[in-house]
Amino acid sequence: MSAGIDPEASLHVQAAISAKREGRTLTEESVRRLVHDFIDGRIADHQMSAWLATVACTGMDLSETAALALAYVDTGKRLQLGDPARPVVDKHSTGGVGDKATLIVVPVVAACGVPVVKLSGRGLGYAGGPSTSWSPCLASGSRWTPTSSEASRPRPAW
Questions:
Q1: Residue ranges under compositional bias (Polar residues) (predicted)?
Q2: Which one, of 34, 16, 33, lies nearest residue 25 by Cα?
Q3: Which range marks the domain in which residue 120 is found?
Q4: I need a labelling partner for 70 at 20 to 30 A (CA). Which of 55, 99, 141, 147 fits?
């Protein structure tokens, strides 16, 4: 047993696995606890893997899925981008060879006035995905300049 594994957290993940196998819905608190216990090192990798495998086989309802997404968000740092009253969107991509959607979707959505944040990693090597595809454009020093009719349209804060 690892030094950080908590017996109570271990029992909780086992109970969550049993509940999902029996077709029961997990509470928001239960899902949140699973994620936070795992992030904090109180649950062993193999136990979280067992829970994830169970969920993959039995599924999650909308409330469980929302609770899981919110728990993920709570484990990281948040960036405040512009006006909180105005939504900021991200076209998520795992990247890879052949991902052309991002190259079309991001500029089209941004041209409609919606702030778009595109976060990409370069850890994929040759298959760097959209961030690699944008690099030649950014390296060329090209900059978009609005025409007089576009200049009066509200622009994203970024």
A1: 142-151
A2: 16
A3: 80-158
A4: 99
